């Protein structure tokens, strides 16, 4: 069952105007809140954004690859508290992924929009702009935005051809798994 969901999960960048039901959104957030983390530090915080003016501004925080945010009915901005854990990046990435998969399970589609380490138009950094828009303190990392909604676009599910076993080694690096 999970593998079927994983195959059909694709990044979707066009959404219907239809809002995401509160119950679904809350289950998605819960999926993030219970995801695994190094030493169980849970260094994440999430900002739910459904204010269309703010979504529009966020989409401009990162001109390359961020535009889709403005057409999403809702987005979850994933923040990390670096001082809480040296694995904040891994932990927050997993939390975002758990939420993405739960969204998929709820019949929604989504896209990860990277903010951390990405430039803004004025060169200050997409994270700096996102902090300004959402009133986030300077010491909190802004990892990414998970934009989601009901899809206005279809993309094909992954097939066996996409599963590249040349990347899988067997017992020693360089020994093909498929020749075992
Ligand atoms: C760390 C990370 C950052 C990403 N950043 C963006 C982004 O800023 N904008 C965007 O449109 N897609 C972004 N994506 C989505 C990828 O482009 C997408 O996952 C990839 O092309 C594979 O397509 P799929 O998700 O449909 O399998 C990001 C994905 C990851 C994992």
What key phrases describe this protein's structure?
180 residues; alpha+beta; NADH Oxidase; 5 helices; binds flavin mononucleotide
Mean pLDDT: 97
Please report the total strand number as a whole number.
Answer: 6
Which CATH top level class fits? Alpha Beta
Tally of discrete structural domains: 1
As residue ranges, the low-confidence spans are none
H and E string: HHEHEHEHEEE
Shape: globular
The name of the CATH topology is NADH Oxidase
Number of helices: 5
Write up this protein.
- By secondary structure, the protein is of the alpha+beta class.
- It has one domain: NADH Oxidase, CATH 3.40.109.10.
- Helix content is 31%, strand content 19%.
- The protein contains 5 helices and 6 strands; from the N terminus they run ααβαβαβαβββ.
- It has helices at residues 2-8, 22-33, 52-61, 88-105, 126-134; strands spanning 44-49, 74-80, 109-114, 141-149, 169-170, 172-176.
- It has a 4-stranded antiparallel sheet with strand order 1-2-4-3, with helices on both faces. Strands 5-6 form a two-stranded antiparallel ribbon.
- A hairpin with a 1-residue loop joins strand 5 (169-170) and strand 6.
- Helix 2 runs antiparallel to helix 4 (88-105) and helix 3 (52-61) packs antiparallel against helix 5.
- The longest helix is centred in the middle third of the chain and has 18 residues, at 88-105.
- The two termini are 27 Å apart.
- The model has no long low-confidence stretch (mean pLDDT 97).
- The structure holds flavin mononucleotide (FMN).
């Amino acid at each position: 069952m999970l593998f079927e969901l994983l195959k059909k999960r694709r990044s979707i960048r066009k959404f219907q105007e239809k809002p995401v039901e509160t119950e679904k959104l809350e289950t998605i957030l819960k999926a993030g809140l219970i995801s695994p983390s190094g030493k169980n530090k849970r260094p994440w915080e999430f900002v739910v954004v459904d204010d269309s003016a703010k979504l529009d501004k966020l989409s401009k925080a990162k001109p390359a690859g961020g535009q889709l945010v403005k057409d999403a009915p809702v987005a979850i901005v994933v923040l990390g508290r670096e001082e809480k854990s040296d694995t904040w990046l891994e932990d927050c990435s997993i939390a975002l992924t758990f939420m993405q998969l739960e969204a998929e399970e709820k019949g929604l589609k989504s896209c990860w929009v990277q903010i951390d380490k990405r430039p803004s138009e004025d060169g200050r950094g997409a994270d700096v702009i996102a902090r300004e828009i959402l009133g986030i303190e300077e010491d909190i990392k802004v990892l990414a935005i998970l934009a989601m909604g009901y899809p206005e676009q279809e993309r094909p599910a992954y097939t066996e051809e996409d599963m590249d076993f040349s990347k899988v080694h067997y017992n020693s690096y360089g020994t093909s798994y498929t020749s075992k």
